Task: structure prediction
Amino acid sequence: MVAEVSDEELMGQIRNGDEEAFRILIERHQDRVYGTVARMVGGSGPEVEEIAQDVFLRVWKAAATYRAEAKFTTWLMTVVRNLVFTRTAQRARRKDIDGSDPVDEETGESIMARAPDPAGRTPGEALSFRELERAVEEACAELPENQRLVVHLRQYEGMEFEEIGKITGMSLAAVKSLMFRARETLKKKLSGYLGASK
Amino acid sequence: MEKKWSSEEDLGKELEALLAKASPPRAPAWFAAKTLARLRQEEVREGGRSWWVGWRWVWAAGAAALVAAWVIWDRPKAGMEISDAEVFAALDALVQQDEENRWWAGL
Result:
């Protein structure tokens, strides 16, 4: 039932103030939005949740003027991009926010690292997996914003380069160039893990 | 949702396999409920604010109307002229008043 209703139809219902349609839309896209924000901002704390919520609140407000000129996900990711870039610019200005994981005051250990492993790995496996995860996250986080976004949209959201171009407001050649530069940087940063991942 | 293709323009199979191991985090289970709660909260707040903003404009318009009325009432009437005789009479009256005041003050 829920899957039958398209995003565009849901937006039409949201325009009329339908909160149930809005809930369906959130549940359908929350992982995509949350994941992208997390990758762009770094971590998965309350700041990420707040920005992801802001994205959906903006969708609610923009429903009245929304026109299905492009794919809904393209439009949604443009909203994500704009909000994330604004927030990171604000954060860069403030310079007083520590983007690292919350740390236990007594042990200095990352609280996130202590969380039980959802895949049920042994502590040793989980540790090496977390190390790899962290290395990938850090390597991605060190990429310039635009490169990071292009890599994320291509790798994790499976978007076409043309679609990414619409989201970032760049030409196809510029997007491919960003991807190339990101690949070279990631290769260098993750060289220690590349052989082991086979 | 992860991509199913790989081309020379992409990251390369090895790097893609590595990145696939570190998927971005998923939204917490309560995310939709919390977002809807925040929406309602913000609508209540904005509703209150719009009422206040509406009344603020009423007050501002009222104040502006009063100031305009006072300026119109207070401005010199067009074509009004004061003759020299009236000016001298007013000055004489002032001087006389001053003399009276001095007399009453015993000066």
Summary: The interface with chain A takes residues 1-4, 9-12, 14-28, 31-32, 34-36, 38-39, 42 of chain B (CB under 8 Å).
